[in-house]
Amino acid sequence: xxxxxxxxxxxxxxxxxxxxxxxxxxxxxxxxxxxxxxxxxxxxxxxxxxxxxxxxxxxxxxxxxxxxxxxxxxxxxxxxxxxxxxxxxxxxxxxxxxxxxxxxxxxxxxxxxxxxxxxxxxxxxxxxxxxxxxxxxxxxxxxxxxxxxxxxxxxxxxxxxxxxxxxxxxxxxxxxxxxxxxxxxxxxxxxxxxxxxxxxxxxxxxxxxxxxxxxxxxxxxxxxxx
Length: 226
Hints:
Layout: E1 2-13, E2 20-31, E3 35-39, H1 46-53, E4 61-66, E5 69-70, H2 76-86, E6 87-91, H3 102-112, H4 119-128, H5 144-156, E7 162-166, H6 174-190, E8 195-199, H7 202-205, E9 210-215, E10 218-224
Parallel strand pairs: 3-8, 3-9, 6-7, 7-8
Antiparallel strand pairs: 1-2, 1-4, 4-5, 9-10
């Protein structure tokens, strides 16, 4: 089952002599349950693609379909709701609320919709990510790697169709970076979560089962590793 499809996605900024093409006809599909890395240097277009997939930005041309919904059909409010419910986002900066415990940070997306978590699924996430004993801690009481795990848990709590991880290891030392990548792999395998990992780090990208390389707004390779 295709969870994500990009069809001829193009993004152009500016006009005339100041025009810059960030994405130039991206065709891409991702199956449910895949762990895919988007690899590219600064300026390759990977951040632009992330913003479009996260419904934060709109393409100049082409369309994106996530879990059967064409993002171009959504207005700003609908896009925000879709992003919260269907697209989990993990950034290199954790964006945790400092006055809330890890538990409350994790359930925040559900609280915004006045919903309660499925306790069995919540416990499963906490167990898989190794933070079951950290749930009552405030963010400043956690290490960088633990904070990132809480951020991953928050992104998973709604059972999103797609998890977008934007340079999630860029803020971590090598040891914690490996821990976070391992957590993403566990989420993919044990929770059957579809993951799209955006990174400039080839070593991190090679942990995925499929690596797509972007250069100057084009896909230059699409390699299935296993």
